[in-house]
Amino acid sequence: MVIAEATLPLSRVQGSQSGDERFHQLQADLKDRWHSIDDFDRSPRQILVVPSLSLDQAELSKVKGVHHYEERLLFALIRLRNPETRVIYVTSQPLHPSIVDYYLELLPGIPSSHARDRLDLFATYDSSLQPLTEKILARPRLMKRIKAKIKPDEAYMTCYNSTELEKELALALDLPLLAVDPELLYWGTKDGSRQIFAECGIPLPDGSELTHSTAELSEVTAALWERQPELKRIVIKLNEGFSGEGNALLSLAGLAEVAPGKAERGARVKAIAAAMADLRFQCDTETWASFEKKIKELGAIAEAFIEGEQKFSPSVQGRVTPKGTVEILSTHDQVLGGPDGQIFLGCTFPAADDYRMALQEMGRKVGQNLAKKGALERYSVDFIAVHHPENVENPWDISAIEINLRKGGTTHPFMALKLLTNGTYSLEDGKFYTKNGQAKYYRASDNLQSEAYRGLLPNDLMDIIMGEQLHFSSIDGVGVVFHLMGCLSEHGKLGLTCIGNTPEEAEAIYEKVVATIDRATQES
Predict the structure, then answer these.
(1) Domain co-membership, 149 together with 63
(2) How far is CA 458 from the centre of its chain?
(3) Is the peptide bond before 83 cis (omega within 30 degrees of 0)?
(4) CB count, 10 Å around CB of 455?
(5) Are residues 279 and 317 part of one domain?
(6) Which band of pLDDT confidence, cut at 50, 70 and 90, is reported for residue 10?
(7) Burial class (CB in 10 A: 0-12, 13-18, 19+), 273
């Protein structure tokens, strides 16, 4: 699920040499200013959080309530448990006070009032689809007020994903940016991901080189089919897409007459080109006309669709620290939806026992490769795992699909677990343990959605959950924590992370929460 860089004015993309030099000088300061979240940091620290989704706006518009996704980095408030840390958090629209209070009250061991005194909130009062960072840059007076809150020698900036916009803002504020250099974003595209997998010797589906026209795409799709004549479907992927919604499926069933061995190459290419108009899009608002335009703008690849009766979509998350070390943070099994299971809906932690450690090792190889290329901060790798029970020695066929150089849908649930339990991830078995040795599991979603939920306010949601005692209990260490609450009233959409002491308990809490909200909204 690779995020596309926003379309930027040329004047902003073409940074001056002096600006690039200053950016790299600032980045070197991160080694002294950044500390792991597991450390108790007593030094004065300031963190500017800019949760901008600096994405291709056409792709972003497919996501309902997307401007509320800026709330997903509110779990960064975990840094306020360090008593000398101040967080400056900027959003497009002001955050509802009850949402802020909700997160501060989740902080273990710190009075919420003490944390609130070290939190500064700013807003652009602009709900347009422009990236938040672009909105900030367009408001010099706002930037001046933000800069007045910052002590440059103690501060750094963090974001959702990095583009030239974030680089420009970091330079304007004279801050190092805890994110990948925009010059390296190619390695988070479909084409760049495939190159890294090949360099690391990690299995990946057969696929094509990057193309920028229907004619080229039809040629490479035909070549892929010829290499693998047993294919039933081929997935067409925009080089930069969001949550799987940049994918489309080409069924080969209707092209049997031009299959390899039954027709000449030219006839096959022509038939494939004609069939592109009938692609099965994962986003219900996508059309061939708009998709073809994006092929020209962003590029696209053709990739073998992996079939399987028992098929799972695990992922591994890691980071390259400012000190250059590679850390594995977590593994997940993704919960996917859409017409063909291509769209990210949520996840379970950790990934299945059968392949969790293999994911860790492959994720480590990717991280080391990225580190050598100069990448920084979070990355994730998505896989497809197919079960072949007849193969006793190697029952799981695992293929790498793509790399994401950003925070993603699995970042904030894991941060919620860290915030609530103050535990650690174990590389020994890929599980998460509290300080007393209790393993923790969760089931999370960004897409709990119903028309019946429209009109619910965050306070209404709390009333419903507290009445059923489903709110997270710091005593028992189980329960639910919410995000995307600002999205609830207008769009009937909500995010949640349900934490339990077993996978079954986490799933049971999830189902009970959904049933409770459904029942309450039906009764009202």
Answers:
(1) yes
(2) 24
(3) no
(4) 13
(5) no
(6) very low
(7) middle
Over residues 60-74, the mean pLDDT reads 80
CATH of the domain at 64: 3.40.50
| Backbone phi, psi, residue 140, to 5° | -60, -30
Is the pLDDT reported for residue 244 higher than 70?
A: no
With a cut of 80, say whether residue 17 has pLDDT above it.
no
Query: Which three-class secondary structure state does DSSP give residue 253?
Result: helix
pLDDT at 509 over 60: yes
At 58, the pLDDT band (50, 70, 90 cuts) reads low
- Cα dihedral angle (55, 58, 60, 63), rounded to 10 degrees? 180
Q: Is the Cβ–Cβ distance between 321 and 332 less than 8 Å?
A: no
Q: Give CA–CA dist 289/272, Å, rounded.
A: 16
pTM value? 0.89
Range of the domain at 452: 412-524
Q: Which residues contact 275 (CB under 8 A, 6 or more apart)?
A: 250, 254, 255
| Cβ contacts of 513 within 8 Å, gap of 6 or more | 465, 470, 480, 496, 498
Distance, CA of 378 to CA of 180 (rounded, Å):
8
